[in-house]
Design brief:
The structure is a single chain. The chain is built from 14 helices and ten strands. It has about 300 residues and is of the alpha/beta class. The chain has two domains: about 180 residues, Periplasmic binding protein-like II (D-Maltodextrin-Binding Protein, domain 2), CATH 3.40.190; about 100 residues, D-Maltodextrin-Binding Protein, domain 2. Strands 7-6-8-5-9 form a five-stranded mixed β-sheet. Helix 2 packs across helix 12, helix 2 crosses helix 14 and helix 13 crosses helix 14. The protein is globular.
Length: about 300
């Protein structure tokens, strides 16, 4: 899931700027430009936004998969696009306040970025009750045998030498990731019990945990990854809130919302239905079953009665 703020590559920046020019032409023609990042959940939720707007008669121009976080965010701020799905936790990086404990509580994270962005002419609509943050998942057979459901259980398993973790180098080294879990739950995972990978692809770490690759039985994951159930992985709950909360919500330009005020009443109930179990199921239809984001979004919205 593309929920973090990456360093922009020159090629990606040029491609994104070109796409924004095209989006700007669409805005001049009166369409609401709906964009997203290129990750699975971003394209899924952006497709939902576009379909819902069209259902109430609003013309839409799709720029789904526009680019990484900073390209899409910059396009929104500049007016090249009108709306895209973003995660509340990224507000910590947008505002330079990563150490603020407000980001580790769902409501305060939402309120904090909503206030900050309102001053920038942006409005955060209703968020999904699903935390797509960094978490740790354990192989299902081990979790059932040891009755592991939370990070407190995981910490106990670490102390007993039961855990071998696959994770990205960033997850292992970033103070906000594994070290935050260790501090909150009072454990220390030895480096010789960690398989550290240069990339941040949770599909790799999850599969390593599920298949026991290199003796691994636990992996870094995101909270709404689609393959978790298919791989029989048990996600460890984080009751102490060691991680920043990442709940997805549409962020829209205030001027666009003023022009089309029905957007809020149309989208808020949709995102309220997107709990973690629902997003995992929908993401799985794309990442595991090979479905297209637009088709999966349309099926969900029709089945739930949100569109005709």
């Amino acid at each position: 899931m593309n929920r973090s703020v990456p360093i922009l590559a020159r090629r990606a920046l040029l491609a994104g700027l070109g796409a924004c020019v095209a989006a700007g032409r669409a805005r001049a023609q009166g369409a609401v430009v709906v964009a997203s990042k290129s990750d699975t959940e971003g394209t899924l939720t952006a497709a939902m936004i576009a379909l819902c707007l069209e259902d109430i008669g609003i013309p839409v121009q799709r720029r789904i998969g526009l680019g990484p976080t900073l390209i899409v965010r910059s396009a929104l701020l500049s007016g090249d696009i009108d709306v895209y799905p973003e995660y509340t936790g990224n507000g910590a990086f947008f505002t330079g306040t990563e150490a603020d404990p407000a980001w580790k509580l769902a409501q305060s994270a939402y309120d904090t970025i909503a206030r900050a962005d309102l001053a920038r002419g942006l409005v955060w609509l209703g968020r999904a009750p699903a935390n797509n943050t960094w978490l740790i998942a354990v192989r299902g057979s081990l979790a059932r045998r040891e009755r592991m459901t939370s990070m407190a259980d995981f910490a106990d398993a670490v102390r007993r030498g039961l855990i071998r973790l696959a994770a990205s180098t960033e997850f292992v080294e970033s103070p906000a990731a594994l070290p935050s879990f260790e501090a909150a739950y009072g454990f220390s995972l030895p480096m010789d019990r960690i398989v550290s990978l240069p990339g941040g692809d949770t599909a790799v770490t999850a599969r390593a945990a599920a298949q026991g690759i290199s003796g691994v039985n636990a992996g870094m994951v995101y909270g709404t990854d689609g393959a978790l159930d298919a791989l029989d992985l048990a996600v460890m709950a984080d009751p102490k809130g060691a991680q920043i909360v990442y709940e997805v919500a549409p962020v829209i330009r205030a001027a666009t919302l003023e022009r089309y005020p029905r957007i809020r009443e149309k989208l808020d109930p949709v995102f309220a239905r997107l709990d973690a179990a629902t997003l995992r199921r929908l993401n799985a239809r794309i990442t595991v079953e090979g479905g297209l984001a637009g088709s999966v979004a349309r099926d969900f919205l029709r089945d739930a009665g949100f569109i005709g």
